[in-house]
């Protein structure tokens, strides 16, 4: 009696090395979204997160997996520690960044939570606030709040005492709660953004001012690009006048996109994306505008839209 899965006598027996590597690939692919989700939240950069995940794959491929008790623990620990190291060096690099620095937006239409159990610490405004924490604090908060890791697991990953980890997470929560305002639901966020774009395109300053809070701030990430504000623009009146800048909307084609678990606007000209916009809003109105003009960050967003379950990180070249 034969079954559909039986090998024929002429089929070559898979070598132990081949079977082991196939198993390694299978395990890595199973957890890859979670690994990217951790790295992205710690770094605020899709490109840097991809580099971290690539390095994790290389280390997983080279390690003696026969002694690994828990593959997901090994992969999560390696990802977190690498992301912390990259975040520490990135902080130094960003000191020379020209103008406001914003996290890279990522497309979340096909993977709304980037492998997380919930979309905590994913919105652009929240990622920006997380930047004010140390890399270790950020990692501890992300592991606990976005991925629901137990405190002992976080302590093992960060190689810290359980008491210290509890204090770090508590301190991070307190700091973030002081920075965050009440938010609106997804539908209201989309509505506010829709009305904002329509008013900005038509130069309707009065309607814009009605949407904005008195202390509204507009942040533009262009790293010194010409025509891009190099300092935050503050105040309802100033922001409303700035966003009606004719050149910004001339021949522009705004399109709503799913970004970071919320709605963003990709602005194109002649089918070429030139800017990304999203907002942070509370029941009182829009209080923060986040503009991404940096070509590399827009390219990263476009690349994130085609990220698949088995990306180039586990390619034949790697294997």
UniProtKB/TrEMBL annotation:
Domain of life from the UniProt record: Bacteria
Gene3D superfamilies cross-referenced by the UniProt entry: 1.10.1740.10, Winged helix-like DNA-binding domain superfamily/Winged helix DNA-binding domain
InterPro entries the record matches: ECF_Sigma-70_Domain, NTF2-like_dom_sf, RNA_pol_sigma-70_dom, RNA_pol_sigma70_r2, RNA_pol_sigma70_r4_t2, RNA_pol_sigma_r2, RNA_pol_sigma_r3/r4-like, WH-like_DNA-bd_sf
RNA polymerase sigma factor 70 region 4 type domain: residues covered: 125-176
Family matches, as CDD domains: Sigma70_r4
Any GO molecular function: sigma factor activity
Comp. bias intervals (Basic and acidic residues): 1-11
Residues annotated as domain RNA polymerase sigma-70 region: 28-87
Keyword Cell membrane: no
Region (Disordered) residue spans: 1-21
Keywords linked to the UniProt accession: Sigma factor, Transcription, Transcription regulation
Family matches, as NCBIfam families: sigma70-ECF
Family, per entry: Belongs to the sigma-70 factor family. ECF subfamily.
PANTHER family: ECF RNA POLYMERASE SIGMA FACTOR SIGJ (PTHR30173:SF36), SIGMA 19 FACTOR (PTHR30173)
The protein's assembly and partners: Interacts transiently with the RNA polymerase catalytic core formed by RpoA, RpoB, RpoC and RpoZ (2 alpha, 1 beta, 1 beta' and 1 omega subunit) to form the RNA polymerase holoenzyme that can initiate transcription.
Name listed for the protein in its UniProt record: Sigma-70 family RNA polymerase sigma factor
């Amino acid at each position: 009696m034969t079954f559909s899965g039986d090998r024929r006598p002429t089929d070559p027996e898979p070598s132990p090395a081949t079977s082991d590597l196939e198993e390694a690939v299978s395990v890595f692919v199973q957890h890859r979204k979670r690994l990217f989700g951790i790295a992205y939240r710690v770094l605020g950069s899709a490109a840097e997160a991809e580099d971290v995940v690539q390095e994790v794959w290389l280390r997983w491929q080279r390690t003696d997996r026969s002694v690994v008790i828990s593959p997901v623990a090994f992969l999560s620990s390696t990802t977190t520690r690498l992301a912390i190291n990259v975040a520490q060096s990135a902080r130094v690099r960003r000191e020379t960044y020209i103008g406001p620095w914003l996290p890279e937006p990522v497309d979340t239409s096909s993977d709304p939570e980037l492998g997380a159990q919930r979309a905590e610490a994913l919105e652009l405004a929240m990622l920006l606030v997380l930047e004010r924490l140390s890399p270790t604090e950020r990692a501890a908060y992300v592991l606990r709040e976005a991925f629901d890791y137990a405190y002992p697991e976080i302590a093992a990953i960060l190689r810290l005492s359980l008491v210290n980890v509890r204090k770090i997470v508590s301190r991070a929560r307190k700091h973030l709660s002081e920075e965050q305002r009440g938010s609106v639901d997804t539908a209201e966020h989309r509505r506010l953004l829709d009305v904002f774009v329509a008013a900005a395109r038509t130069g309707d300053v009065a309607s814009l001012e009605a949407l904005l809070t008195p202390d509204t701030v507009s942040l533009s990430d262009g790293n010194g690009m010409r025509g891009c504000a190099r300092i935050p623009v503050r105040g309802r009146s100033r922001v409303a006048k700035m966003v009606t800048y004719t050149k910004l909307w001339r021949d522009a084609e705004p399109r709503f996109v799913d970004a970071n678990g919320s709605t963003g606007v990709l602005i194109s000209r002649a089918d070429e994306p030139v800017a990304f916009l999203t907002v942070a809003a509370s029941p009182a109105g829009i209080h923060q505008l986040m503009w991404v003009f940096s070509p590399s960050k827009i390219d990263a967003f476009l690349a994130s839209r085609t990220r698949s379950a088995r990306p180039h990180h586990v390619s034949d070249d790697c294997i």
